[in-house]
Amino acid sequence: TERTLSIIKPDATRRNLTGKINAKFEDAGLRIVAQKRVRLSLAQAETFYAVHSARPFFGELTEFMASGPVVLQVLEGENAIAKNREVMGATNPADAAPGTIRAEFAESVGENSVHGSDAPETAAEEIAFFFAGLEIVG
Ligand code: GTP
Ligand code: MG
Domain Nucleoside diphosphate kinase-like spans what residues (predicted)? Predict the structure, then answer.
């Protein structure tokens, strides 16, 4: 079993979609083993997305992520990283498969409702960035 970091982004919390998104995770067999709702500072968003700092949309992305509440989560399950990305759907909702979170809920490529770690190393780093070990209960 594997763990991944998930973030429900401000466009989704603003539209009161946390429960509907969590149902998608649980229906796919992912367990929510840690969860907290926070508002990120711009500095925290910039540190979290530092890998994208050279991209033209970095300012837009980090300002968006700091624009409202987010729900930080650790999801656990068999192949949790790949499974979560499958449930999320493609980055651009226009390309996301029917039934995925982004197909159903995302508003645009920037305001795309969820984040999910993309590999075991980044999952471990991202989980450690937001959660203490005692906050994760499998
Ligand atoms: P994450 O799970 O959020 O990392 O999404 P991803 O892995 O599907 O996409 P990627 O890592 O390539 O990009 C990270 C995030 O940057 C995306 O989820 C979007 O929120 C944002 N992003 C990507 N491309 C664009 C873009 O062209 N414009 C804007 N405004 N944001 C973008
Ligand atoms: Mg990514």
Answer: 1-138
